[in-house]
UniProtKB/TrEMBL annotation:
Keywords: DNA-binding, DNA-directed RNA polymerase, Nucleotidyltransferase, Sigma factor, Transcription, Transcription regulation, Transferase. The gene is rpoN. The keyword Transcription regulation applies. Pfam families: Sigma54_AID (PF00309), Sigma54_CBD (PF04963), Sigma54_DBD (PF04552). One of its GO terms (biological process) is DNA-templated transcription initiation. One of its GO terms (molecular function) is DNA-binding transcription activator activity. Residues 66-80 have a biased composition (Basic and acidic residues). It comes from the Bacteria. PANTHER family: RNA POLYMERASE SIGMA-54 FACTOR. Residues 54-80 are annotated as: Disordered. Residues 133-339 form the RNA polymerase sigma factor 54 core-binding domain. This is RNA polymerase sigma-54 factor.
Length: 512
């Protein structure tokens, strides 16, 4: 085989996205709070990029205008005070100075409200710092910290205490002992599950007797919340049963031997096996609902994130829905005039090149932000125009909508619509909902009209809520009921939506 080196000319077409286009797409996809972070980052990195300051009082809000008036008044008072000459008269023991100090206390009551001004200022500064600290959200207490604090009140040997602390530190998020602390399947003899306590003894770096290990675990299982330190679901529930718990013996029997029958709602089977009446079993089931299968949850939980809508819907005098974008958190941007003058001045070539590059970057981000607002407003308005009945009458009147339809109306590519609605919320007269909610798709009814999937899910929920719970409808029966309302769907579709809506099966919904 012979290898040759040669040159060839070839024509081909390639599509490459310019950096400016990539930046515009990234900015369009950001929700409002993420956009604020991106703008703050750009402001810190580009010295030529500045926040635009309103030039006139007409451009300012009432609160901003009042703030400026208060600041001007304080500046004038400070200037008047500074223009007063200090009086120095040693012959009269500086009486004029003391008189002036008394006048200052009347003119500045906030600063001279005490006989000790310096102490007052220190107190104000301390209060300000204290307020700042108290307003910082504290880290929630973890499950381990809570349990360790309780565990230290027990009087036990050092070996038991150290092993108990080791067990607490290794509890999972549910408050149970990990099934496989080594990260490998744990299987005992004859394929039976291995005791997790024994496994923890083997993982522990210090030799400890099984009796001391069991003592430590027993102490942990006495802590609050009840049920922590359990090795499985059954033990977790049994730990929460006290001597005075109603239907105690029935609960123990149900938890020990009939959890699967309870899950499948096979109450007659439990009645036949245990000899308890259905009424007693149902009363015990009500008590069982008060037990917590996940006692460790709720500690060290992340705080709920508030949703800031990107779009608000408002109704004008003519009854038409209009769009208003959220711009409170995103400042108006401008390019520094000082550096623009520097570019037109006599600066050296390297400085001008640096300033020119930063100006281009600033213009890119300003244009990208404005393009985001323009695209988001047009897309949102087109969506609202399609979903007027939904806004007027409720979710059951939502219209099937595809992104291609909105793209055709706005005159953009469908991917632009997808980025515009991604991870963004809209404040409707009814609630805050994701913009993607309007693109649920749908099917056709018996009359050939398009029906959104949300409408079918609402109808499915209504049928299930109205059924006879002693004889609940199977999935086949639900298909027939929906067909009576004009919705012809396959059984597998009904099953899929039933599970997605957390609706139990007909056997689990049955009431005895």
């Amino acid at each position: 085989m012979q290898l040759n080196i040669s040159q060839q000319m070839k024509m081909s077409q390639q599509m490459k996205l310019a950096p400016r286009m990539i930046q515009s797409m990234e900015i369009l996809q950001l929700p409002v709070m993420a956009l604020k972070e991106r703008i703050d980052q750009e402001l810190s990195e580009n010295i030529l990029l500045e926040q635009a300051v309103p030039d006139t009082a007409a451009d300012m809000s009432d609160s901003e205008l009042q703030f400026e008036r208060d600041r001007d008044r304080d500046d004038r008072e400070s200037a008047d005070f500074e223009r007063k000459e200090l009086v120095v008269d040693n012959d009269k023991n500086n009486e004029a100075d003391f008189e002036r100090l008394m006048e200052m206390s009347k003119e500045w009551p906030d600063h001279f409200s005490s006989t000790n001004p310096s102490a007052n200022r220190i107190d104000d500064l301390s209060s300000s710092k204290h307020d700042t600290i108290t307003n910082i959200e504290s880290r929630p207490e973890s499950l381990q910290e809570n349990l360790l604090e309780q565990f230290h009140f027990f009087n036990c040997s050092p070996a038991v205490r150290e092993f108990g602390e080791f067990l607490i530190q290794n509890l999972d998020d549910n408050g149970r002992l990990p099934v496989n602390p080594r990260g490998t399947p744990i299987v005992g003899q004859n394929g039976a599950p291995h005791d997790s306590l024994q496994e923890m003894i083997e993982v522990y770096s210090v030799r400890i007797s099984p009796d001391d290990a069991q003592t430590a675990l027993s102490l942990i299982q006495k802590l609050e919340p009840r049920g922590v330190g359990a090795r499985d679901l059954k033990e977790c529930l049994l730990l929460q049963i006290d001597d005075d718990t109603p239907y105690r013996d029935v609960l123990i029997a149900l938890i020990t031997s009939h959890l699967d029958d309870l899950y499948q709602n096979r109450l007659p089977v439990i009645e036949r096996k245990t000899g308890y009446s259905l009424d007693v079993i149902k009363e015990a089931c009500e008590q069982l609902k008060h037990l917590n299968p996940w006692p460790g949850r709720g500690f060290d939980a992340a705080p709920a994130q508030s949703i800031v809508p990107d779009v608000y819907i408002e109704k004008d005098d003519d009854g038409k829905y209009t769009i208003r974008l959220e711009r409170e958190y995103t400042p108006n941007l401008t390019i520094s005039r000082k550096y623009q003058e520097l570019l037109a001045g006599d600066a050296d070539a390297a400085t001008k090149e640096y300033v020119k590059r930063k100006i281009n970057a600033a213009r890119w981000i300003i244009d990208a932000v404005e393009q985001r607002y323009s695209t988001l407003k047009r897309v949102s308005q087109a969506i609202v125009d399609h979903q007027t009945e939904f806004l007027d009458k409720g979710p059951e009147y939502i219209v099937p909508l595809k992104m291609e339809q909105i793209a055709d109306v706005v005159g953009v590519h469908v991917t632009t619509v997808s980025r515009a609605v991604d991870d963004k919320y809209i404040q409707t007269p009814r609630s805050i909902i994701p913009l993607k909610r309007f693109f649920g798709g749908g099917t056709t009814n018996a009359e050939g009209e398009e029906v959104a999937w949300d409408v079918i899910r609402i109808k499915l929920r209504e049928i299930v809520d109205a059924e006879d719970k002693s004889r609940p409808l199977s999935d086949d029966a639900l298909v027939d009921e929906l067909a009576k309302h004009g919705y012809k769907l396959a059984r597998r579709t009904i099953t899929k939506y039933r599970k997605a809506m957390d609706i139990p099966s007909s056997r689990q919904r049955r009431e005895y």
